[in-house]
Amino acid sequence: MIDPVLLRENPDLIKRSQKVRGASVEAVDDALAADAERRATIQAFEALRASQNQFGKQVASAPPAEKKALVAQAQSLAVDVKAAAAASAEAEARFTAVVRTLANPVIDGVPAGGEENFVTLRTHGAVPTFDFEPRDHLELGELLGAIDMARGAKVSGARFYFLRGIGARLEIALMNMALDRALAAGFVPLITPTLVRPEIMDGTGFLGEHADEIYYLPADDLYLTGTSEVALAGYHSDEILDLTDGPLRYAGWSTCYRREAGSGGKDTRGIIRVHQFNKLEMFAYVLPENAEAEHDRLVALQEDMLQALGLSYRVIDVAAGDLGSSAARKFDIEAWVPTQNAYRELTSTSNCTTYQARRLDIRYRTESGKTAPVGTLNGTLATTRWIVAILETHQQEDGSVRVPEALRPWLGGIDVIRPVGA
RNA sequence: GGAGACGUCGCAUAGUACGGCUUAGUGCACCACCCUGCUAAGGUGGAGUACCCUUCACGGGGUACCGUGGGUUCAAAUCCCACCGUCUCCGCCA
User: Fold this and answer.
1) Strand partners, A401
2) Considering the domain boundaries, does residue A105 fall inside one?
3) Is strand B in 7 Å reach of the CB of A65?
4) Do A244 and A361 fall into the same domain?
5) The organism sits in which domain of life (predicted)?
6) A50 and A188 inside one domain
7) Enclosing domain of residue A178
8) What is the dihedral of CA A137, A322, A303, A234, to 10 degrees?
9) Taking chain A, what is the end-to-end CA distance rounded to the nearest angstrom?
10) Which of A61, A67, A76, A155 pairs with A417 at a CA distance of 20 to 30 A?
11) pTM value surpassing 0.90
12) Domain for residue A394, yes or no?
């Protein structure tokens, strides 16, 4: 949720942000009107309630003879109070509903426009070239006995798969490598619940435009999370944090579930876009003024990891229209996937500033002793999808795949993965 | 799945049988000051969160909050209902 004070005092800033996102600018005026209405009804209710409280004291201390008459008077007052309370609650609900449609104001410098308007900040590594026809990750995965899509479909349907043998080991190795790096960088590992209550899912902002992407279990009123970000953000909800010793940083390890509802027909081959995968997610709670520095720090950790794995990539500043409503800025890192002749997203790192924290009521104490919402950030450090880029980038003509040196310690020292039976 | 107990201001507790004298008491911890040669002990005072109004500001006034949400009532921590959570016992089970 945006800061209601900012809305009141600087609506133009929010309008500019809505505009570059391609979101509704009128919603800002609607919110302002709803705020005025809300405050008026609150005042009316509180004044009535104050007189009712006064009256209650009179009734309590009145001699029994007068009590009856006073109670009769108080009854009519009670009717007014009730009506005013209802009006105020309604106005509050209307205000909240409108304000929550407003997205987090983007940070200065975020490119305007939609998905294609991203700005490339830097690229790393030459695009790999082959003196043979490179195989795609699924063909390699099948040769290596690593990926089994057919049986995944048999058991669970399209976009499900088995990772088997070296494929399973590869994923565990990646996750562990990422975890060790996160530990070294001061992150606290956390294995998170993947089923969460509605208010947590809603608080992280995923029930908005992503609602149809999410698995829901009506019998239990629980949502399956598409990223451990949800549980990591909910972890400290309704708390006042002590950030005097620095940010709180967590590395969440979880399976992620996504319906991929809007992506019919896209990336149907292999494990690029699947309903279930594993991810190691970094999450940081920081003082708002440190959020942008933390954002860069997260991206640096991701780049270190990608470089260690010998992948070629570019870092992009995602355009305003392609940000989720919670993010004020988002850096994606996309690795080169040879057979697609394209960069594909491997990590996504969002600075949610205080937007998410305000919804989840996560605060810290300022120097003056007041409370204020913290900043939250999240970013990927490893996912199943990375296997795609690793297999394709490091493949050799005979279908074997070189294991990047940095990954070998987590694979028992294996330096080359060879086709099964070869 | 069945039966029961419980959820109060950071922690621990009182208050709930009889609704109004509770702007929720007490202890510990906390902060400021006083006192004692240091420490300990003692004394005095202060402390929650959110929102609304007012003020240039310091501040002042008000409303709500006793797990959450409803309800009864002139009035609810206290009565009623639902939900969430914790604990105990029984049953079942990978």
Assistant:
1) A395, A417
2) no
3) no
4) yes
5) Bacteria
6) no
7) 115-417
8) -100
9) 57
10) A155
11) yes
12) yes
Structure tokens at A85: 């309370």
Structure confidence by residue, pLDDT tens digits, A6-60? 999 999 999 999 999 999 999 999 999 999 999 999 999 988 888 888 777 777 7
Strand B bases, protein C-beta under 7 A: 20-21, 49-53, 62-64, 70, 73-75
Shortest CA to C1' contact from A54: nucleotide = B75
Alpha-carbon distance A70 to A64, whole Å?
Answer: 10
CA of A371 to C1' of B49 (A): 9
Residues A90 and A96: their CA atoms lie apart, in Å, by 10
**Six-digit token string for A93:** 């609900």
ipTM over the 0.85 cut-off: no
Q: Is the CB of A44 under 7 A from strand B?
A: no
What is the pLDDT at residue A204?
84
- Is A334 domain-assigned? yes
CATH of the domain at A191: 3.30.930.10
Sign of the CA dihedral A154, A156, A157, A158?
negative
In angstroms, the CA A97 to CA A138 distance is: 45
Residues A124 and A206 in one domain: yes
Q: How far is the CA of A78 from the C1' of B70 (A)?
A: 18
- What is the rounded distance in angstroms from the CA atom of residue A207 to the CA atom of residue A203? 8
Strands A222-224 and A329-337: unpaired
Same domain (yes/no): A135, A162: yes
Residue A113 CB neighbour total at 10 angstroms: 15
Q: Is the confidence at residue A61, as pLDDT, over 80?
A: no
How far apart are alpha carbons A185 and A178 in whole angstroms?
11
Using DSSP's 3-state secondary structure scheme, residue A22 falls into: coil
Query: Do A27 and A130 sit in the same domain of this protein?
Result: no
User: Does strand B come within 7 Å of the CB of A23?
Assistant: no
Q: Are A392 and A339 in contact (CB under 8 A)?
A: yes
Q: Please state the domain count of chain A.
A: 2
Q: Is residue A203 part of a domain?
A: yes
Q: Treating both helix axes as pointing N-terminal to C-terminal, what angle do A386-393 and A166-184 enclose, rounded to 10 degrees?
A: 110
Domain harbouring A44, CATH code: 1.10.287.40
* Annotation marks residue A358 as catalytic: no
**A406, two tokens:** 């940095």
On whether both A238 and A279 belong to a single domain, the answer is: yes
